Amino acid sequence: RMITRNNALTYFIHRGRQVGFEYELIKEFADRHNLRLDIVIPASHAELLAYLNEGKGDIVAAAMTITEQRQVQAAFTRPYNEVEELVIVRTGEDSIASLEDLAGRTVHVRQSSSFYTTLMALADSIQGLQVAPLPDSLETEDILAGVEEGRYDITLCDSNLLDVELAYGRQLKAAFSIKPTALGWAVREDNPALLAALNQYVQKEKGGLFFNVMKKRYFENKRTITRAKDSLRVDLSGRLSPYDELAKKYARQYGQDWRLITAQMYQESKFDPQATSWVGARGLMQVMPDTGRELGFTDLYDPEDNIHAGVKYLSQLVNRFDPNIPKKERMRFALAAYNVGYGHVLEARRLAREKGWNPDQWFGHVEQAMRLLAKPAYHERSRYGFCRCGQPVHYVSNIQDRYDAYVGMLTMARESDPERL
Hints:
Blueprint: E1 2-3, E2 12-14, E3 17-19, H1 21-32, E4 39-40, H2 48-53, E5 59-65, H3 68-73, E6 75-76, E7 81-90, E8 106-110, H4 114-123, E9 130-134, H5 140-149, E10 155-158, H6 159-167, E11 172-187, H7 192-205, H8 209-220, H9 222-237, H10 244-254, H11 258-269, H12 289-295, H13 303-320, H14 327-340, H15 342-354, H16 362-372, H17 376-379, H18 390-416
């Protein structure tokens, strides 16, 4: 479980897909260790390490500077990135070039940030320096925008974030560098195995091809940076896709969660209404023509008809499972059935029961049985025949991860504007 923040440096959703520099690095680590990655987003920066120590997550990956104060609260990995701590002013502001020039000026930063610690250490030696703490719910990007717009005089930020903001076209500049700093990931002190594995990962990959490709993608590629900033605006508006209203309409009609429908829609088509699979599935929800006709729909390239058909079919699958099974598990079974067929899910539940696993629980139980069904020793005696049974395992997991991310994003949107949703 990765504890992070929703911003252009760490983690965001672009066209339904989870991306971001920190996310990509930790996702690669998780994939190499066959771990499922869940995202946890606290309401403010100040809660990142608290969430970690309360057991709400396993690693803080949020472009966090390694400081003595933070090392008392958690164990940090070796640095995975080195940056400069910069004093930031508006373009055209030429009166600040050194620490002495901060005398009598006001610098705005979050109180929970490493920048606040830096400034407080300097305050006694710089006459008249005013440090103005800002709410911990603000991202550094928000503060930089405030400097550009004239709401704030001066702020501090790391050089990697300034690169992103300048590429996006911000009218800002670095007046000077205060000091070099190192970024690390934090884990609990009682998890030395995870710390060792992460340190090994950083030691092996830092400076390597994957890390360098990610750095170029997120800090140097103007197109990626623009997408990141635009995606954040979409996220904080509470909008997940161009088809939110249709997803809400038919999710309401059939008693489903529109956020899950949207997560499934992305998995099926990446929101492309003209998508066609090699087996002939069509549209946003990848409905087969025969299934569409049975449900009463013929134009499966029409977004409204396709979403209606997909939600109706998924709801029928949910209702085919025992109502005594918890709704969330029936939904996971239904998603697997949507992907690979109802019969194969029944077969996997039967096999799970034979193995002593819980046939009413998908993750860790029926999904494991589904993996076994891909092996000849099992599928040769299956009444439903062969299936690519690893596919629904990834399908359900990806939709669950995306759904969890959407829920987190929309929670943040409500907190930033409670009247919007």
